[in-house]
Amino acid sequence: MPVSRSLPEPAPGSSGTRLGRLLPGLVTAAAAVAAAFVLHGLVPALPAMTLAVVLGVLAANLPGASTWTGGRARPGLDFAGKHLMRAGIVVLGLKVSIMDVLHLGWLALVMIVAVVAASFGGTYAISRLFRLPPVTSLLVATGFSICGASAIGAVAAVRRIRHADTVLPVALVTLCGTLAIGVLPLLAHPLGLSAAVFGAWTGASVHDVGQVVATAQTAGTAALAIAVVVKLTRVLLLAPVAAMAGAHHRVRARDLGAADGTKSKMPPVVPLFVVGFMAMVALRSTGWLPSPWLEAGATLQDILLGAALFGLGSAVRIRTLLHTGGQALLAALASWLLIAVLGLGAAFLIAG
User: Fold this and answer.
1) How many Cβ atoms from other residues are within 10 Å of residue 161's Cβ?
2) pTM, to two decimals
3) Alpha-helical runs (H) found in the chain
4) Residue 113 Cα distances to 107, 200, 336, 340, angstroms
5) C-alpha angle 29-49-75 in degrees, rounded to nearest 5
6) How many angstroms separate the CA atoms of 195 and 218, rounded?
7) How far apart, in whole angstroms, are the C-alpha atoms of residue 22 and residue 72?
8) Low pLDDT (below 70) residues in the chain
9) Is the C-alpha dihedral spanning 163, 269, 155, 20 positive or negative?
């Protein structure tokens, strides 16, 4: 008679064991992204990415759900917040066309770069003034000045910043970006802004791409068109900023190693996912990709970033945030006001 043999159990640390640990969190994130898309369909003014963060925060703080997200689902949610974020940044490159950026003209490009630089420096200074830690200040400045949570994830990766330290900056950038959706359209008429100027203002000052779309579309298609191009020009600056952050971290790591006589593995100047982002920008700029492919890429990017943002949101404990994040909230609001003023000045020069 044949002898039956049972399959061997997966060894600790094997792919089967790892997948089993990650799967509950990944399934939870997928369900949350689906819910965010449904809610966005019902209320188009609310970006799906913002809803993903909000659902994550709710899941982290509601009884029952918090036990799940803080327990069995935690490994998968942390994986989503880190690795799916990087994958989403790569696919984000498919939204950026160098040709669209160049069509803005040299003055507009100079103004956008100047706004990003001034926003970054000003936000970092404000954050330090409010006594936020240097790491938090760096991530807040990056997210506010470039492209929200995507930029925070990119710089956190190149600087080897802990995943837990990205939670507060992501919460702040999401809060202030959502605030812009409600406030900026109310100011368009009192300020006497044309559709083009309002669109340029939105693209130059609102943090996340989805939030830019939600804000600019209130003024019509003309505002939306220029807002998206200005915003994606800011997104393009993610690559050089990440490269500079990586180079600075590499020099610092080398100096620390020389000081204590140790040799540690040097971090890459430009991480692979940033290279992937630029490759996608180059591919989009060739014009070879048909519209269905670009639409599929946009959907994939939303799914990846939505899952990542839900994962990050699910680590936000409101009670802890209220005790430790008061100074951070004031710094974020001051930074939001600074960027709004800088962006408005640039908008008049770009489209006035």
Assistant:
1) 20
2) 0.82
3) 15-42, 48-61, 65-70, 74-79, 85-92, 98-102, 106-129, 134-145, 149-158, 167-188, 195-205, 209-216, 221-236, 238-260, 272-286, 291-313, 318-324, 326-351
4) 10, 14, 17, 15
5) 25
6) 10
7) 9
8) 1-16, 253-270, 324-325
9) negative
Report in angstroms the alpha-carbon separations of 12 from 7, 204, 271.
Answer: 15, 49, 29
Looking at residue 306, its pLDDT comes to 93
Q: Per-residue b/e over 43-82, b at no fewer than 16 CB within 10 Å?
A: eeebbbbbbbbbbbbbbbbeeebeebbeeebbbbbbbbbb
pLDDT value for 19: 85
DSSP secondary structure of 130-149: TT--HHHHHHHHHHHHTTTH
Note whether 36 and 306 are within 8 A (CB): yes
Report the pLDDT value the prediction gives residue 41, as an integer from 0 to 100: 94
For the record, the structure tokens of 4 come out as 């039956």
Q: What's the CA gap between 76 and 350, in Å, rounded?
A: 44
Residue for token pair 């791409």: 209
The 10 Å Cβ neighbour count of residue 187 is: 13
* Beta carbons of 78 and 311 less than 8 angstroms apart: yes
Collapsing DSSP to helix, strand or coil, 271 comes out as coil
Within a 10 A sphere around the Cβ of 255, how many other Cβ atoms?
9
Contact at 8 Å (CB) between 154 and 273?
A: yes
Q: Is 220 helix (H, G, I), strand (E, B) or coil?
A: coil
